[in-house]
Write a structure and sequence with these properties.
The chain is of the alpha+beta class. The protein is built from 13 helices and eight strands. α2 packs antiparallel against α3 and α3 packs across α5.
């Protein structure tokens, strides 16, 4: 036996074991009013339980069984085989509110009620950026992050099932009205941009609306992906902004797209390339970014957003973010009754259901995608 009586009704239990030259020890003091046979049974079972607890600790090399949610999350971020940008995404949602509220909870003790309580707290939280309650999308990101961490704890056999699995957020209808431009608005905006902005920003705007590409894909586009003779642009890479810097990465195979562009866009690309050549004197431009900063390096989405916001204020144009131009491309095609799978393919959606949020058809004109976009982005009066 590994216990001894230390005073009336109090017993000290101590167990130890040496594994690979390392000594492991566990002890505790218990008070009881039992006596006789009941006391013997109690002392025996308590001693056995303590030995089993010590065995569990020894077997749990990394201490997983005692992990708090924050310890689990940090272990995941350190060891998970995922992209840096994905880790940065999770880290932002963990450090911003999550650690503060549930970081100290033991993973093995987290219940569905704990997560529901946290989500209710988030629903009442006012964003510092918008001065509005957190959006459905933001709440979903928080919940997704928690689910990923707890799924990892299932993989590590800390818990048997994820308590967040059956939690569903009730989505509120959030109108897209202020997130994209109508064709009528574009017909007013494009001539103003052509007249008062430079080729660099005008081309970036037109090309984004024409193709619906993501900002990262626009920033990662290099001249060797453009055939100006055939009028073909290949989108197969993207700039990913991470805590370790900008990374030029290949998009998923299903995300590779090739666009046949209009004569107007070919003209703009040729003009832009000529104007950009001063940055790369004596060098080939083929491996250079089409849209670069003054040193020829990576340009940020913030640059385009700030430029366009200032431009809109100056010329009394309703402002939407640069990403909203991607939404604009989708809604234009949806309004022309282009089938969702075709829109999904053009935007690089691997899941066509993602495209359904843009389907709000309002016109009965059925056109080929290229013909539709050619007409939308080409000013009625241009000087080629």
């Amino acid at each position: 036996m590994s216990y001894r009586k230390i005073e009336n009704g109090k017993y000290r239990f101590e167990v130890e074991k040496t594994v690979d030259g390392k000594r492991h020890r566990k002890s505790k003091v218990i008070k009881t009013d039992l006596n006789g046979k009941d006391l013997k049974v109690f002392l025996f079972t308590t001693d056995l339980e303590l030995e089993e607890a010590l065995e569990d600790e020894i077997a749990d090399i990394h201490g997983f069984n005692n992990f708090t949610f924050q310890q689990l999350a940090e272990y995941y971020l350190e060891n998970a085989d995922i992209e840096v940008r994905t880790k940065d995404f999770y880290r932002d949602f963990l450090k911003n509110r999550t650690y503060e509220k549930i970081g100290n909870l033991k993973v093995r003790e987290i219940k569905k009620a704990d997560i529901e309580k946290y989500l209710n707290y988030l629903r009442k939280t006012i964003s510092d950026k918008t001065n509005q309650p957190l959006s459905y999308k933001t709440l979903k990101h928080y919940l997704t992050t928690i689910k990923v961490m707890l799924n990892y704890s299932v993989d590590l056999e800390i818990i048997d099932k994820n308590p967040a699995d059956r939690i569903r957020l009730q989505k509120k209808d959030e109108p897209l009205k202020r997130k994209f431009y109508s064709i009528k608005e574009l017909n007013q905006i494009i001539p103003i941009l052509q007249k008062y902005s430079d080729t660099y920003h005008f081309l970036a705007f037109i090309f984004t609306v024409y193709t619906g590409i993501r900002p990262g894909e626009l920033h990662g586009l290099t001249w060797d992906r453009i055939d100006l003779e055939k009028g073909i642009v290949q989108i197969d890479r993207s700039i990913s902004r991470t805590s370790k810097g900008d990374i030029l990465k290949s998009t998923k195979t299903r995300d590779h797209r090739t666009f046949q562009i209009s004569p107007f866009l070919i003209y703009l690309f040729k003009k832009h390339k000529e104007e950009e050549s001063w940055k790369f004197l004596g060098q080939s431009m083929e491996d250079k970014f089409v849209f670069s900063n003054s040193q020829g390096g990576v340009v940020t989405e913030k640059h385009f957003n700030e430029f366009y916001k200032d431009f809109c204020q100056k010329y009394d144009i309703r402002y939407i973010t640069w990403y909203g131009l991607r939404h604009t491309a989708a809604t234009i095609l949806a309004s022309k009754r282009v089938p969702a799978p075709n829109i999904a393919k053009r935007l690089g959606h691997t899941d066509p259901s993602t495209t359904q949020i843009y389907i709000h058809a309002v016109e009965d004109i059925d056109k080929e995608v290229k013909d539709i976009m050619d007409k939308v982005i080409t000013p009625k009066v241009i000087s080629l």
